[in-house]
Amino acid sequence: MDLRHWIGVFRAWLPLLVAGAGIAAGVAFVGSSAMPPTYEAKATLIVGQSLSTVNPDYDQLLVSQRLSATYATIATTRPILASVIGRLDLATTTDELAKRVRASAQLDSTLLTITARDGDAARAAAIANAVAAKLIAASPPVAGAGTSFSASIEADLRTIRSEVDATQARVDDLAALTTRSSRQEADLTAARDRLTTLRSAYSTLESLASVGAANLLSVVDPAVAPTEPDWPRPMLAALFGGLLGLLVAATIVVLVEYLDDSIKDPDAAQEAAGVATVGTIPRMRTPAGRGAIYRLATVVFPRSPAAEAYRTLRANLEFASVDSPVRTLLVTSALPAEGKTVTAANLAVAFAQAGRSVLLVDADLRRPGVQEVFRLPNEHGLTDLLRRADSGLAGLVAGTDVPNLRVLPTGPLPPNPAELLGSERMRSVLKHLADAAELVVIDAPPMAAVADAAILSSRLDGTLLVVDTSRSHRRAVRVARAAFERAGAKVLGVVLNRYPPRLAAGVGAYYSGYGEGSGDGGTRSRTLEPGLAAAAAAGGGADSRTGARRANGS
């Protein structure tokens, strides 16, 4: 199974795929539209003073990043959530609120995001801001530094900063003098020493304050009430529902295709039978109320796609037997009702229309059908030849109005078909039949039903296996293939019957474009219904063209 095979499979199942995606999308849209709306609000905090520090310290940033992960865990603890419930007077429990609150810290930054979900937009924003406020209130104890200690350091830093500014101004004034007295020189030296001492003290206090700065929590983006609900989103739900439905439908298609043992294309038929596909006959419906004669597309509808398919099959068989001409041809199938009788009859007509002397023999001694197609009596036939050695063909073979075509029915059905067909008398009868015509086409029983076809196939020049795309299975075709191999039969190829018209439409359209006067349309059978023989003789007139769209090509 290659890519083209699966493209064809999905194209054939396209209505199911579209229906699955459409139904799932519709159900998701309707279901999500009926759900109550849920709003989502977010509050963003920053850990540390990375935004306010001119030259941030790497160690301080690293500490803040790690602390942000700690705060994300603390944000959804029971004490924090219980405080939020009490502050907002929420009618819920901490466990239920924990399912609606989420805190996340980014790995490469010091930002902390608190997300709250609620059916009310304003309440969702209030919950996110309340959690942020409670987390800020709980932040000093996390690092182990009290509020009074941090305040004392901040006050000392401000005092020393003022003294540094005043001392720097005194140094600048003394240094600006062009001439200084000895006292002024002493004051300048003392001021510079004082400035150095103050700066050292400021640096020491600033390093002590860095621990508290790394632990500082502040809100950079408070939560606001959202204007649109975060969920449900009917269009988004419909999109995901459609994709899910398409995936489920595609899975069903793949599963069905994998488990399907039927034969639907020439490649599958060739793989199962082990021989090439020499013909594809399109499916054509039998008109209501019409007899089996309408299955003779080569006579009744000579310009139909089915008739052209039989002529193509005839040409392929002629090319396949150039080196060793086929004088006796067996037509059978793996299972009953696959169209072997109709295929044998139309193929015999096609060869006769090409100018060859053809004898169509019905060797299905269990369920004969050739006499029904040609509307012939079945009182005498093949069984008479098998029972009496002195029987001649003159009184047993029925002529038709198709030039060069004669038909030998089965005659009375015997109780032992397999014994008769496998007898030496049958071998001499086949030789006698081969001498009576240029080509003998034999309709045999199905391979998987009885052993008759296998017996006959070993005694004939070639065998055709008819495979029905609506009935045949690989297992049955493989069984027939094994039977042919055991019998030593020469299988010329597979005929794919009831092929979908859309795949075989190009053949019919190409052929019907030639108009009237087809070389094969001038035949006439005395078995046709009144008025139908004249239409066939005229090359397929109005009735023929109308029926060509409905006739059964099986």
Question: In summary, what is this structure?
Answer:
The chain has 554 residues and is of the alpha/beta class.
Distance between the termini: 27 Å
| Strand count | 12
Mean pLDDT equals 81
Outline type: rod-shaped
Strand content: 5-15%
Q: Tell me the number of helical segments per DSSP (H or I, 4 or more residues long).
A: 23
Summarize the amount of helix as a percent range: 40-55%
The chain-level structural class is alpha/beta
Q: Largest sheet, order of strands side by side?
A: 5-12-11-6-10-7-9-8
Largest sheet: 8 strands, mixed
Radius of gyration (Å): 48 Å
Which ranges are low-confidence, i.e. pLDDT below 50, for 5 or more consecutive residues? 141-146, 505-554
Give descriptors for this structure.
single chain; 554 residues; alpha/beta; eight-stranded mixed beta sheet; four-stranded antiparallel beta sheet; 52% helix; disordered C terminus
Question: Could you characterize the architecture of this molecule?
Answer:
The protein is an alpha/beta fold and 554 residues long. It is 52% helix and 13% strand. α4 packs across α6. The protein is rod-shaped and about 160 Å long.
Please give the structural blueprint:
Elements: H1 3-12, H2 14-33, E1 39-47, H3 58-74, H4 78-88, H5 94-100, E2 101-105, E3 111-118, H6 121-137, H7 139-143, H8 147-175, H9 182-214, E4 217-221, H10 234-259, H11 266-273, E5 277-282, H12 297-300, H13 305-320, E6 328-333, H14 340-353, E7 358-362, H15 370-374, H16 382-387, E8 398-399, E9 405-408, H17 417-421, H18 424-436, E10 439-443, H19 452-457, E11 462-468, H20 474-487, E12 491-499, H21 501-512, H22 532-537, H23 542-547
Parallel strand pairs: 5-12, 6-10, 6-11, 7-9, 7-10, 11-12
Antiparallel strand pairs: 1-3, 1-4, 2-3, 8-9
Helix pairs in contact: 2-10, 3-9, 4-5, 4-6, 8-9, 11-20, 13-14, 13-21
